[in-house]
Design goal:
Rossmann fold; five-stranded antiparallel sheet; 26% strand
């Protein structure tokens, strides 16, 4: 049975001609992103992105990996004055507001050739880098890092030693541990992020993803799959999503913070509903309860609140200024 390195198999499984992300049902049929999953959370995220746009004095948003345009549609509702442009591997989704522009991309780290010289724009990469395929390595019995290969049925074997460039990345950001420990080599994502940032002449690039730093790298990695709402073994046959968390500290950024901190700072999380409103205005009270519930979901520890927001400023500064983490 043929086997390939994980990065090659992963790319084909998600973005090949019959890849997971090209299927008509779309990823929403298998898992819920924070942009379109829990009720009300997508609107909170849209308000946060719109607020950041205003703080950077920008009026245009380009979303990389826009799925079926769920977040863009909500952004259009939140602020119709924003110029919006979605990019994904599929053609323009039906039902997307006419004011939202759309382009197709090759998928993975590859971006459209004509995406460049972006000026006065906020580029949003929401849950994009976690599905940019990368090399998976494992420490063998002799303590050497070797490339993990995988068959189409998900069976794994160790291949050749990691290349020198990948080894250097690991030495700097994810030092090898004991035999059996795994690393997810983030160099591919570093390059993808750098390429995206290089397309911006003036603006800000905002990434949002689950991630980790050197102090909390998972010994056995984070590679996993999702199918029909359940977490499953990652199998590179196009039947499931394949994802791995992002090494956020290896990216070239201006600042980064957790979602729970940023949403609170931006003031997009509703305060608790006043109970007396239940008597004077029951409808408004129920709406306030729902909005508060969505805010708690979006900022929950060991949940959506653990998302990292990582930002690269290019010729712009945020007002008011923010502290880094």
């Amino acid at each position: 049975m043929s086997e390939r390195s994980w990065d090659v198999a992963w790319q084909e499984a998600l973005y090949g001609p019959d890849g997971f992300y090209r299927q008509p049902a779309g990823p929403a049929a298998h898992f819920a992103t924070s942009a379109q999953g829990l009720p009300g959370v997508g609107r909170i995220l849209a308000r946060a992105v719109a607020t950041l746009c205003r703080q950077y004095a920008l009026s245009s948003i380009v979303e990389i990996g826009a799925g079926r345009g769920e977040l863009l549609a909500t952004l259009h509702e939140v602020d119709p004055a924003l110029s919006l442009h979605g990019i994904d591997v599929v053609r323009r989704p039906p039902g997307l507001p006419g004011a939202v522009a759309w382009s197709t991309s090759p998928g993975g780290a590859a971006l459209p050739d004509d995406l460049g010289a972006l000026d006065g724009v906020l580029v949003l990469a929401h849950e994009w880098l976690d599905v940019v395929p990368l090399t998976v390595g494992e420490v063998d019995e002799d303590g050497s890092l070797r490339v993990v290969h995988v068959t189409e049925t998900g069976q794994e074997h160790l291949g050749a030693p990691l290349g020198e460039a990948d080894l250097q990345w690991c030495q700097r950001f994810w030092p090898a541990g004991e035999p059996g420990d795994r690393v997810e080599v983030g160099a591919t994502r570093d390059r993808a992020w750098a390429d995206l940032c290089a397309r911006v002449r003036q603006g800000v690039v905002v990434g949002v993803d689950y991630g980790h730093e050197r102090t909390d790298r998972p010994a056995f990695g984070t590679l996993t799959g999702y199918r029909e709402g359940a977490q499953v073994q990652p199998v590179p046959d196009g039947s499931c999503d394949i994802t791995a968390h992002v090494a956020v500290d290896s990216l070239d950024t201006s600042w980064r913070t957790r979602q729970r901190a940023l949403l609170t700072e931006l003031g997009v999380v509703a305060r608790p509903a006043q109970h007396e409103m239940s008597r004077t205005d029951p409808g408004r009270y129920l709406a306030a309860l729902a909005e508060r519930s969505a805010g708690l979901s979006a900022t929950a520890a060991q949940g959506l609140g653990d998302f990292w927001w990582f930002v690269r400023e290019i010729g712009v500064r945020r007002q008011p200024s923010t502290s880094t983490s």
